[in-house]
Specification:
Oligomer: single chain
Shape: globular
CATH topology of the largest domain: Ribonuclease iii, N-terminal Endonuclease Domain, Chain A
CATH architecture of the largest domain: Orthogonal Bundle
Length: about 230
């Protein structure tokens, strides 16, 4: 699929198509192209992901304040946290067929790396960053509102953030509060990655899950979300 076809599918025509190519380049593709001697991640979508994350937060916050004028910070914050979290980004990326556009090393692509939630969500943020750098805030806002419309419309009431929900799950059963610990810190200083494990101790013994994010709080939320899925499967 060409860059032009990618642009058409995303609903935005790039003045600088190289930005879109960068946004869709997974780190693994660089080694496959012989990009040795370059800084780790250089040429991949990591820098655009960093920008897109901030643009997405701004656009969603602006949208929520407009859409829910009577809600206060706490409720708006819970909505925002849900809409910019990895599961939401990955689900929206799947809906628009982003996986097929991502460039990854052949071996990694064959192993299914392009369908991983982390890879999809990172690429989604990178695309938003690329649109912002190419055309400014207005087209980035238009893209986000179009892509997130169904998810926002389905949010009838402010969701409970995973950490709060997990804490209430434990307290409701007379258990100690969930315990969080950092498992790994990786990535460059401008785009760090934290992996955090959370554990609860019900009567049957400890149960744990982990999550990864660009900030400790984000990683804790992902870990809590993963553990809730284990403790209370739908």
């Amino acid at each position: 699929m060409s860059t032009l076809e990618h642009s058409d599918r995303l609903g935005y025509r790039f003045a600088n198509p190289e930005l879109l190519s960068e946004a869709l380049t997974h780190r693994s593709a660089l080694s496959a192209r012989g990009a040795s001697g370059r800084p780790r991640g250089a040429g991949s979508n990591e820098r655009l992901e960093f920008i897109g994350d901030r643009v997405l937060g701004l656009v969603i916050a602006e949208w929520l304040a407009e859409r829910f004028p009577d809600e206060q910070e706490g409720a708006l914050g819970r909505r925002l946290g849900y809409l910019v979290a990895q599961p939401a980004l990955a689900a929206i990326a799947e809906q628009i067929g982003l996986a097929a556009m991502i460039s990854a090393a052949p071996g990694d692509a064959k192993a299914g790396v392009k369908m991983l939630a982390t890879v999809l969500s990172d690429a989604m943020e990178a695309v938003i960053g690329a649109i912002y750098l190419d055309g400014g805030l207005a087209p980035a806002r238009e893209f986000v509102r179009r892509a997130w419309a169904g998810t926002v419309d389905g949010q009838l009431s402010p969701p409970k953030d995973p950490k709060t929900a997990l804490q209430e799950w434990a307290l409701g059963r007379g258990l100690p509060l969930p315990a969080y610990r950092i498992v790994e810190m990786a990535g460059p200083s401008h785009a760090p990655s934290f992996t955090i494990e959370v554990t609860v101790v019900p009567k049957g013994g400890p149960v744990a899950a982990s999550g990864t994010g660009s900030a400790k709080r984000a990683a804790e939320q992902e870990a809590a979300r993963a553990l809730l899925a284990v403790l209370s499967p739908s």
